[in-house]
Amino acid sequence: MSHNHRVILTRSIFLAGVAFAALASAAAPASAQQASNTDPEATTVEDIVVTARRREESLQDVPIAVSAFTEATIENRQLEDLSDIARYTPGVQLQQAFGRDGDRPVIRGASNILISDGKVGVFLDGIPWFGDFTTLDLDIAQRVEVIRGPQSAVFGRGTLSGAINVVTRRPGDDWSGRVSYTAGTDNRLSVSGVMSGPLMDGVGVMLGMTQNDVDGQYQNQIGLREDLGSQSSKGLYGGLFFNPHPNFDASIRYFRSEDRDSHFAVALQNSTFNNCFQSTRSYYCGEIPTPTRFALNTDRFLMPGLKREAERFIADVNWNIAGSGYVLSYLGGMNDVYEASGYDQSYDERDFFLIGAGCPFVPIANRLCGRSPFNDTSSSNRETQTHELRLSSPGGGFLTWNIGVYSANDELTPSPEFLEATEVGLDTLGAVNEVQTRAIFGGIDLAFSDTLTLALELRYQEDEVTSTNQPYTASTYFAPAYLATLRSSNPNAVVGTTLTRTTQFDNTLPRATLTWEPSSDLTLYAQYAQGNSPGGFNDPAAPVTTFEEETLTNYEIGAKTRLFGFDYLNASLFWNTYEDQVLTNTFQALTVVQSYRANIGESELRGLELEGAYSLTDNLSARFTYSYLDAEITEGVDGDQAVLLNGAACKTGTAINLDRPGCRSAGSIVGKRPPLVSEHLASAGIRWDGDALESGWTPFAAADVSYRGEFFEQVHNNITIPSSTRLDVQLGVQNDNLRLAFWGRNITDDDTPQGVLRYVDFPAALTPSGDRPRAFAVTAAPGASYGITLSARF
C-alpha cells in the first residue's frame, strides 16, 4: 500500500468513526417492522422464498439446484457483484479477462469463451438483463438466486446451463431506508442510499442511489501512465408500486447506471517465452506466470478504457381474476445500453503495423500511415424489449397449470462515433445484429399425494437471427478537412460491403421433475431437462462464417435436508451431454486479429455439488460449498490443434485444411478437458456473533475462503491457469440500527491471473508452419484491499 493510500485510509477511518459515534448517539430504536440484523443470514433458511420456477416456493422445498443470497448474506459476506456471488456457489465460475467488459460465466462446465449472452442468463425480477452483468449493483437486491442446470423451459433464451435472477427490493407498509458509506485502500469510496414507503393508500414508492469509485492497483509504465483497472460507477433507481385491491398489484421501475473504467491491467507474454511445438507453430505449455509489468499505448487511441451508460425499465402486473385464484401476469422490460471501449490490442509497448514502412506505396484510399489499427476504439448501442404474458391456475389441488407467451427483440448496432483512419484505411462499421424471439410455454403439476409430485414443463421457441452490414461513404462521417490529410484521399470511397444474412432456430425444450417429500425436513427429486443456445454469424472474413445452435441435455438427482443437525444440507448429482458446443478461435483479418465462434463437437459433463450450513454453538455458525466436475470432450476436431501437431502439412497456402492426410486425426480434441472449467471448486465460511452488550451493541467476526482449482485456458489443454485461494475477513459491531465493519478482501494477496487471451505475435518471424507464433495476453487479478463500511437503517 502506498503512503498516500495509507493517509487517505487513516483519514477515512477517522471520519467514519466520528460519523459512527454521532449516529450511535442520535439513533432512535428500530421500528417494530424493522427486522434485527444480528442473525448472520437475517432469517432462517425455512423462511427464504425463491422464484426459481417463476412462482414463490421455499428454498429448501423447491426441487431444483438453486443457491439463494439474501440481503443480509450479501452484506455479511462482502459480496460486491455477481463475480463474488459465483465464488460462493457450487459449480459456478465467472472469469473477467477484460475488466468489466465481456463476462465469461460458466455453470457446470458449459464453457463460455467470448460472449456473455447465450449460456447463462441474468434476470432482474424475472426480466432478461442483456449485456455484461458484473456492473449490476447488488445494493438494489433483496435476494439473488443462482439456478443451476438448463432453465430454457422456464426462462427461455440464453439459459442453456443456468440462470441468475436478481430480485429487487419492494416497499413495505411503513417508511424505511438504509444508507451506507465505505472507504478503503486504493482510494475506494462508496456511498449508497435507499428509502421506500407508502405514498398513499395502495401506492408505494422506492428511491435509491449508489456511487462507487476505486483506483486501479497496477500502474501503466507508458502511454498516459494511469492506474490500470480503475472503476467508477453510479446508479439511480426508483419505482412505483400499486396495490389498490387485494386481487391486483402492479409496478413500474426505472434503473439508470453509468460506468467509467480505465484500461484493464493486461500484459503480453510474447513468443520468446514459448516452450513447446517449436517445430510447428510455437506455443506455450504449462502454468502461465502472473505479469509484473504493464505497458499499454493508452495515448494512441481516442478513448482508453470502458464507458457504459444504461437505462432500463421493467414492469409487472398481477391480477387474481375476480378472486378466483386464476392469476393473469405480465412481465415487460426495455433496455437501452450504450457502450464504448478503447483497448490497446497489441497488449504491450510495441506499436504493431501491418503495412508499416510500405504504407505510402500501397494503393489503399483514405489511410493514415502513422496510426496502427491495433489501437482501437469502438462503440455501440443495444436496444431490447421483452414481453411475457402468463395465466396460472389456483394451487393446492391435484392438478395445477400455467400457460404463456413470450416475445423479445434484441438489436445491437455499432456506432460510427469513433471511426478513424489507420494505415489500412478508414475503419469499417460493424454489422447490425438483431435477434427476434417468439415462444409459447406451459407446465402442469400433478400432485399424486401430499408427498409425491410430478412437474412437466415445455417451451416451444423460435429465434430469428439477422446480421446486416453497414457500408458507408467516407464523406458521410468524415469532414473534408480530415479526409484531405489522408493519403490517396477519396471522399466518395465506400467503406464495407452490403450483406444481409438471416437464419432461424426452432426448438422444443422440455423439463420433467419428480419430487418426493417423505418428511418436512427432506426433499428428494429427479429431473430431466434440455437447454439451448441459438447459433449465429461470424465476420464474413472468418474461416467459419456461421455457427450452429448448442444443446445441453441434463439428468439430475438431488436431495435437500435439515436433518443431522444441519441448518441445511443440499446435494445434487448430474450428467450432462453438451452437443455442438461453441468455442472461439482467432483469425487475422485485414485490420486486426479477430475472434470467431465455431462448433467444436460434444462434451460430457458429470458432477457433484454440495452446500450446507451448521450452527456449531448459539454464537458460532459455519457454511460450505463444494463441487466436483468430470468434464471431457467426446467428439471434436480443431484445426489449430492439427497445425500444432503437423504444422504446414495441414495447410493449403495460409488456410488450415483438415482434409489433407492425417490432419483430421491430428486435430482431434477427444479426451481433452473443456476450457475455463475447474475440476474442484470450494468455499467455506465461519461467523461468530457475540452476545449483546449492555449498550445494545453486538460484536461479530467472520472469515470466508474460496478455492478455484486449476483449469485450461484453451481447448488444446496446453496453458494452465493455476489454482487460486482467496480469503476475506470482517470484524465489527452492530445493533438494530447501525453496523460498523472493518474488512479485508483477498488478504493473502492471491495473484493468480484472471484470464489469458490467445494472440498472434506479429513482429516475430514466421514459424515452420508458415504462421506467426502465438503470444498470450495475461490479465492480472485484483490484489488485497482493506477498508471500513458504516451503514444505518431506519
Describe the protein's architecture and organization.
- The chain is mainly beta and 794 residues long.
- Helix content is 8%, strand content 51%.
- It contains 8 helices and 48 strands.
- The strands form 11 sheets. It has a 22-stranded antiparallel beta barrel.
- A hairpin with a 6-residue loop joins strand 1 (49-50) and strand 2.
- The longest helix has 24 residues, at 3-26.
- The model is unreliable at 1-43 (pLDDT under 50).
Distance between the termini: 36 Å
By secondary-structure content and strand pairing, the structural class works out as mainly beta
Strand content: over 45%
Mean pLDDT over all positions: 89
* Rg (CA only): 27 Å
| Share of helix, binned | under 10%
